[in-house]
Write a structure and sequence with these properties.
The complex is a heterodimer. Chain A is 69% helix and 4% strand. Chain A is built from eleven helices and two strands, in the order αββαααααααααα. Chain A has a two-stranded antiparallel ribbon. Chain B is of the alpha/beta class. Chain B has helices at 46-54, 80-86, 98-101, 108-119, 124-137, 143-148, 156-168, 186-203, 214-220, 238-243, 248-256, 326-333, 356-363, 383-393, 398-411, 428-440, 458-475, 486-492, 510-515, 520-528, and strands at residues 4-12, 21-30, 35-39, 63-70, 73-74, 91-94, 174-178, 206-211, 223-228, 231-237, 279-290, 298-310, 315-319, 341-346, 349-350, 366-369, 446-450, 478-483, 495-500, 503-509. The radius of gyration of chain B is 25 Å and the shape is globular. The chains are: A mainly alpha, B alpha/beta.
Chain lengths: 278, 539
């Protein structure tokens, strides 16, 4: 878990400090520095027309853009998409799950709808939703979150169903506590541990899906540097210049792995039953 | 020679526990054909001793010193392989919860057969005969059918009989019974106890019987060993220990056991009549329906035509075995479940079908304390938040509610510093006090105690009962006291309703019901109450 957390912390640092890590504006290109190999130095022209000497640590792509800068700035997009998607899916799933678990008459309708959503592959829903709106950060986040909502809903519902039978919930009913307060004051705090774990997995999944969407060209517009976009552009000349795909791919894999390790670790620490077994 | 001879048994506890040893320097013996009862409150180390003898101690509890001899043979340090061969053939064990002790996906016959197959060289036909014999011996009807059934198809008492059959099929010299009747109803318990007695006498088995219930001890023990915090404080013949205990702790425990005969009630109590009843139920009925649509429709009548009446300052007991519907009645009155028919009058207002809005002011008048002190408080909220919750819901200003909470904690003999702490920092008895304070914070007219003392150790139980009694008289509350324990009911109730299968079969003044029961079921309940011949709690 510590490894996962420290790798993630490093990623967050990279994302925040991207402008100061020897990068240039990720959208800059220079016709003279196309398809450079990693480590090669070349020239790059800023928007003001100045020409700078620049070392292309990860090489450059077929437009002459610096892959190192693009990958580092791409970290921002990936982390934002991951966290925002997880938060959105959790928030919506918590509300639906609480309602389905507590108000029994809504349960049937709501859960059959959720079953319907789950029957469609997540990536297809996401592609359809992005196609429906327009590729922007917000739409991508929503599109990835929507198919995740039923998963969170199911989890919350099952937790609510067991917690609502606890005597302390019945005592709260007898104390005249309004339903809203019972849901958010008594039931929700006692479901948090598994939800946090679910959140980390949603986050990892969202980072992956965002990359897939961008790679397929249905995610964020190509001018925004995301790991998926960089890989999509590098795909055409993957055989001759594998670094175009390699570096963003490594970043993607490491980040997703780190989030998953963190999630597993959290599950073990937050679940008292697991802790006892160790 | 004794069947079992334990001496100097010391078992360690992991660091950070409340004491260094789970059990320390314990010595006792079990003779052939003898029943020795190990008695003690929770955490006294009774089960640790049983596990130690069976060689089943968890790794966190290492055997530090001592010797355990079975038929003269030293078990401590014996190779695991040999020890395993001794289990079932020379010593075996039955547990508290027969549902979890049996494998749900194997038939009962297969499970007994497993024991026989691994430990005895017998042909399939001989094994089959042996199994049918033992099932007949534990008095299960229709052995052929029982052999082929799965545990969930049997009742709790039948499952425990299967466990006993499994333990005794190879005629071990020693049987360890760890609270074998605690999860059973009192009438079933009486049957299982007499079964253990009969089998033990027939086979001359030595029995180490672990229990917390002095009634059970009085019923079956030859000798009694009393444990306290891992140490053996008293060991002697049953009559000696129960009638003339020498150790102070034993004295206190035995004095805490409630007497089964009702105390004479102070005449000062309002006999009722003039004052209108706080609670009145008329033909209260709750039917649970399940299935329908595609499955077969099933109806369970949990409560049928229940008529009760309760006045201020009085305690009404509802007694019955599990599934008799006593908790359903309580939950209907608090409106945690909606009654199917009938009336529930609180101060004359029928709330049986009241909607949420109309119900809200009535909720203040009825409060409930549940059985399980560990689940009755939200683990993520402080004691203060729990006690303040009710008053704050009804718009009592925060500082006033806090004042009230402090007074209530004092009333239930807790320190005001408890307000800022979390439930896990308190013992079961303390938590139950907190639950009582939480209920009282609403200033109710009717307090329902749903098995509120059943999960507590006998000495703590006595304290909480005394507290409830004091509160009832001081605040002039009406109390509805639900229990399966006749002894407890005898101590606190003015009136008693006996329920069986959803119906009230006998209802009257406690003294009448206890001393001159009219219904045969009530009589059966009294017959089954363990240790009724012993006058506990009179010293």
């Amino acid at each position: 878990m510590r490894i996962g957390a420290s790798v993630l912390a490093l990623m967050v640092l990279i994302a925040i400090a991207a402008p100061w890590l020897g990068t240039v504006d990720p959208s800059l290109f220079d016709a003279g520095s196309r398809d450079l190999l990693p480590g090669a130095s070349g020239e790059i022209t800023t928007l003001e027309g100045e020409t700078l000497r620049h070392t292309f640590l990860m090489g450059s792509d077929s437009y002459g853009r610096d892959i190192y800068s693009r990958v580092l700035y791409g970290t921002r997009v990936s982390l934002v998409v991951g966290v925002a998607t997880a938060l959105l899916a959790l928030a919506a799933g918590i509300v639906c799950g609480l309602v389905a678990g507590y108000l029994r008459w809504l349960d049937g309708i709501l859960m059959r709808f959720m079953d319907g959503v789950m029957a469609i592959p997540a990536i297809l829903i996401a592609i359809a939703l992005v196609a429906l709106w327009r590729g922007s950060l917000a739409t991508v986040v929503v599109a990835i979150a929507v198919p995740e909502i039923p998963r969170v809903t199911r989890l919350v519902r099952s937790l609510v169903l067991s917690i609502r039978e606890e005597p302390y919930v019945e005592a709260a009913i007898a104390l005249g506590t309004p339903t809203r307060k019972i849901l958010f004051g008594h039931i929700l705090p006692n479901c948090m541990a598994p939800l946090i774990v679910q959140g980390t997995f949603t986050c990892a999944f969202a980072i992956l899906v965002e990359a897939v969407l961008s790679f397929l060209g249905v995610g964020l517009p190509p001018d925004i540097p995301t790991w998926g976009n960089i890989m999509a552009e590098g795909r055409a000349q993957f055989v001759s210049f594998p670094h175009n795909v390699f570096f963003p791919g490594v970043f993607l894999a490491v980040t997703v792995l780190a989030v998953n390790i963190l999630g597993d670790g959290l599950r073990d620490t937050l679940d008292p039953k697991m802790a006892k077994r160790v | 020679m004794n069947v079992l001879e334990v001496s100097g048994l010391t078992v360690g506890l992991p660091a950070g526990g409340d004491r260094r040893h789970a059990v320390r320097d314990v010595a006792f013996g079990v003779g052939r054909g003898e029943i020795v009862c190990l008695v003690g409150e929770s955490g006294s180390g009774k089960s640790v001793i049983a596990q130690g003898v069976m060689g089943l101690l968890p790794r966190a509890l290492p055997l530090a010193a001592g010797s355990i001899r079975l038929n003269g043979e030293e078990l401590v340090g014996m190779p695991a392989e040999t020890l395993r061969e001794h289990r079932a053939t020379r010593m075996s064990m039955i547990f508290q919860e027969p549902m979890t002790a049996l494998n749900p996906v194997m038939t009962c016959g297969e499970q007994i057969d497993e024991v026989v197959r691994f430990h005895a060289r017998l042909s399939a036909i001989q094994r089959k005969r042996r199994i049918l014999d033992i099932i007949r011996e534990v008095a299960l009807p229709d052995p052929e059918r029982i052999v082929a059934s799965y545990p969930h198809q049997l009742s709790g008492g039948q499952r425990q009989r299967i466990m006993i059959a499994m333990a005794l099929v190879l005629e071990p010299a020693l049987l360890i019974a760890d609270e074998p009747t605690t999860a059973l109803d009192v009438t079933t318990q009486a049957q299982i106890l007499s079964l253990i007695l009969a089998l033990q006498k027939k086979h001359g088995t030595g029995v180490l019987f672990i229990t917390h219930d002095f009634g059970v001890v009085a019923e079956i023990a030859h000798r009694v060993a009393v444990l306290r915090l891992g140490e053996l404080v008293e060991l002697g013949a049953r009559d000696e220990v129960l009638r003339a205990p020498r150790n102070d702790y034993t004295k206190m425990l035995i004095a805490s056991v409630p007497a089964i005969h009702p105390k004479p009630r102070p005449a000062a109590r309002p006999a009722g009549g003039e004052a209108p009843p706080v609670l009145q139920t008329r033909k209260l009925t709750k039917t649970y329906r399940s299935g329908g649509w595609l499955g077969a429709r099933r109806e369970v009548r949990a409560a049928v035509d229940v008529d009760l009446e309760l006045r201020r300052g009085q305690t009404l007991g509802i007694v019955g075995e599990s599934g008799s519907g006593k908790s359903t009645v309580a939950r209907c009155i608090v409106r945690l479940v909606d009654p199917s028919a009938g009336e529930i009058r609180l101060d004359g207002v029928d709330i049986a079908r009241a909607r949420a809005r109309a119900l809200r002011p009535m909720r203040r008048k009825v409060q409930i304390v549940f059985q399980d002190p560990y689940r009755s408080l939200n683990p993520r909220r402080t004691v203060g938040e729990a006690i303040l919750e009710g008053p704050r819901n009804y718009g009592v200003p925060a500082d006033e509610a806090l004042e009230r909470a402090k007074k209530l904690l004092e009333l239930v003999r807790m320190d005001a510093s408890a307000l800022g702490r979390y439930p896990h920092q308190f013992s079961g008895g303390q938590r139950q006090r907190i639950c009582i304070a939480r209920a009282l914070a609403m200033e109710p007219e009717l307090l329902i105690a749903d098995e509120a003392v059943s999960a507590l150790d006998v000495s703590v139980q006595a304290q909480v009962l005394a507290l409830l009694e004091e509160i009832r008289s001081r605040l002039n509350l009406a109390m509805l006291f639900i229990t399966h324990d006749l002894r407890v009911a005898a101590q606190v109730c003015d009136h008693v309703a006996v329920m069986q299968r959803g119906r009230v079969v006998e209802y009257g003044e406690a003294e009448e019901v206890f001393l001159r029961p009219r219904h045969e079921y009530t009589r059966a309940l009294f017959e089954a109450a363990p240790g009724r011949g012993f006058a506990f709690g009179t010293t």
